[in-house]
Structure formats: C-alpha cells, structure tokens
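# nightly structure sweep
# worker-07 picked up a monomer target from the shared queue
# config: single-sequence mode, recycle default, output format = structure tokens
# input follows
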Amino acid sequence: MLDEIITILARRCLALTDGVESMEILADSLMAELHQTAIEPPSVDELIEVLRQLGSTSGPLMTIGELVADLIWLSERLVFTHRITEAEIESGELALDADLAVLARISTV
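# output follows
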C-alpha cells in the first residue's frame, strides 16, 4: 500500500516539475508530503530505494539514471522525435529500437 501512496504523491510532485525530477529532490518533496499525512515517512534513503523499485516496474514511474519521470504526464504532453544518424543515412535503415522501447514502456501504463 505504501508503494501506491508514494506513486500517487510522486506523480503529484512530478506534475509540478514538468514530469521529471532528480531522485534526491523528489525524495525530499515526498518527505514533505508524507509529513502532512498520518503515515510515518521512511528515511530519504529508503524513499530513494522505493522510487528506484517503482521506476523499474511497469507502473507510471520510470527511473533514468538519477532522474524519475512520470510516463503518463510525459506521454500526454511530449512528441517523440528521432534524430537520423550518419550511419542510418549510409545504411539506408533507421535504428528505432531505443525510440520504440520508450513507446512500448508507455503503452503498458
């Protein structure tokens, strides 16, 4: 149940920062949010670990290095583009695996 609460609060915090925030700043914001509830907040380190776990599952949060992104927020507002590389021009083929991986992850949310 704590995971669901943290996900909801994280999405609320991320909506204020254009959908992406550093792990540490988001954890600090979550601590402030949790202090306003009856829930005993975990430590910042524990919150960061929970965010890492939530970001590696199929939910709406995704971790990218030390950043946390709300995929629902981003998918509703961003347009994905693909920059064509010299290798793609020379080969006559597009390498879309990375682009499609992001879209596949968003589609599961």
